[in-house]
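Example 3.2
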Amino acid sequence: MSLQVTRHDFDQWMMPVYAPATFIPVRAEGSRLWDQQGKEYIDFAGGIAVNALGHAHPALQQALTEQAAKLWHTGNGYTNEPVLRLAKQLIDATFADRVFFCNSGAEANEAALKLARKVAHDRFGDQKSGIVAFTNAFHGRTLFTVSAGGQPAYSRDFAPLPPAIQHAQFNHLESAAALINDSTCAVIVEPIQGEGGVLPADAAFLRGLRELCDRHQALLIFDEVQSGVGRTGSLYAYMHYGVTPDVLSTAKALGGGFPIGAMLTREDLAQVMGVGTHGTTYGGNPLAGAVAGKVLELVNQPAFLAGVTERHQWFVDRLQAINQRLPVFKTIRGLGLLIGAVLNDDFAGKAKQFNLTAAEEGVMVLIAGASVVRFAPALNISQEEVQQGLARFERACERILRGATS
């Protein structure tokens, strides 16, 4: 007989690094989810932009179970068929010639930053080691990536931090230009800052970074952990902007819920990483490779990607209608199905309240900082689920507005 558990047990047994919702999900299908009490929720959180095809997608289940019956894990002393096929899919679909597989976005970014330092070390010497990142960015929770993230709340308790990382202002090219020079080995940037407030980059800003990196022989790294795999309506956001990076990190939606990350780069850069320079035990295992291969096959279709753009409009139109009746948002921004509703000054700092009240009404949303409600649903969510979920969200906004004026 299995152990009966409740949300209270989390507080007793788990490291207190999270403050999860008051309910425990136990079953999900598509964009609907049910908790231990049988209450239904519409999922606009998508596992933080992970569940690209929703929950329990039949094709992903089939890919996983078929592979599970064949081969699970061998370690990196061997390769396997699913991950090689996935590598070819990514190479054929992007600028990249080579792929490194890992387990998460943080690992992919860690690999990208290590690659940049190794390229500079081999080609130019030790003096070229500087990394330029941006304030309010998020690149992961390892010591290297949290230092690059530019959010002191995530890094200050873990000093001393890795040196030679400077932060410019996002979307401010002059700020970046003041820091990028011949000692810079890499610039790392999110085409859309996710955790930092769902803030898309300006095209001119990314073009300017590309020019600065070319001028100073630095690598341009795009962190597409959150914006990749169809999230913006393009397979990767760099395609939307028409700016090609030297290195790209991808994870989250790549596995559709199964843990996998990857670093993509060109042939000439990949060659500096010889045998033994980097590695990971579980990265690119057959199970992850099989599931991610199916995700990529389904997402990387013109009709599917066009559907993401269409769904963006469903969300924006309804959120704007809600805001006309219940003025709680200052602006609604984002690309594709990564959308941020910025709370107005009356509700500044209260995004968590919207998150909690929405859950009470039966819809799961995210926050992106203290004042932005974030929506990152499945890329194939139905129009009925969008309308029903936003009707529940509207009721939550109504309750909060009533409480503020009572």
